[in-house]
Amino acid sequence: MRPACLSPLCSQVSTEYTVMGKLKPDLNTEELLEKRAKAERVKLFSKNLRMINREEAAMSAKPAETGPAPPLWKPQPKAEPSRVDVAKEYAKRVPRPRPRPTANPEPDEATQEKEEDVDPILLLERQHEEQVSQRAARHGEESRVNAVKDLGHNATVARRRPPVQS
After folding, report:
1. What value, to the nearest 5°, has the Cα angle with vertex 153 and ends 152 and 159?
2. pLDDT tens digits for range 3-31
3. Lowest mean pLDDT, pick from 46-60, 69-83, 113-127, 142-156
4. Measured in Å, how far apart are the chain's first and last C-alpha atoms?
5. CB atoms within 10 A of CB 144
6. What's residue 72's pLDDT?
7. pLDDT tens, position by position, 73-88
8. Residue 146 host element (H or E)
9. Which pLDDT belongs to residue 121?
């Protein structure tokens, strides 16, 4: 026997790119067979359903000769009330809350005009004196309150004096 040689085979094969052909799809895979079987079952079911619906339509088209037609709407028996209905009934029975009376009634127009005429600095001083007296009442310090009031009074008097011209 003679040893095999590569040169005779190389002369038969070309070095150019050639398209040999494409593979055909495999039409007998399990997935495709299952899809076909399912599609066939769906077609058969829809065919049977159409036949049944035709028969029922033909039967209902013929008037019933045995008596009057049954009512289309049947009253349903009273079932238990739903949660929404129960909540609505409860809300009807619960008393409504009463509005609280307002602590500060609306001031009259006369008092508003008086407050507008008063100097805003005097208003702030009055508020300050009230706050100091409330704090002192809480802590029991009357002597401090009087000292602050005197200090504030002296400051207002000094502010009201006209400047001395020399």
Report:
1. 90
2. 677 777 777 777 788 888 888 889 899 99
3. 142-156
4. 146
5. 13
6. 74
7. 777 777 888 999 999 9
8. helix 142-160
9. 84
Residue 114 has pLDDT above 70, yes or no: no
Question: Residue 100 has which token pair?
Answer: 């609280």
Separation CA 132–CA 137 (nearest Å): 9
Unique residue bearing structure tokens 């008393």? 95
Q: What is d(CA 48, CA 51) in angstroms, rounded to the nearest whole number?
A: 5
Closest CA to 108 of 99, 100, 116: 116
What long-range pairs does 46-49 form, CB within 8 A, spacing at least 24?
A: none
Instruction: Compute the half-sphere exposure of residue 150: CA atoms within 13 Å on the CB side of its CA.
Output: 6
Interior angle at CA 99, CA 96 and CA 102, nearest 5 = 175
Rg of the chain's alpha carbons, rounded to an integer?
A: 53
Burial zone of 148 (CB within 10 Å; 0-12 exposed, 13-18 middle, 19+ buried): middle
Global pTM reads 0.27
Distance CA(88)–CA(163), nearest Å, equals 76
The letter for the amino acid at 38 is K
CA distance 165 to 55: 121
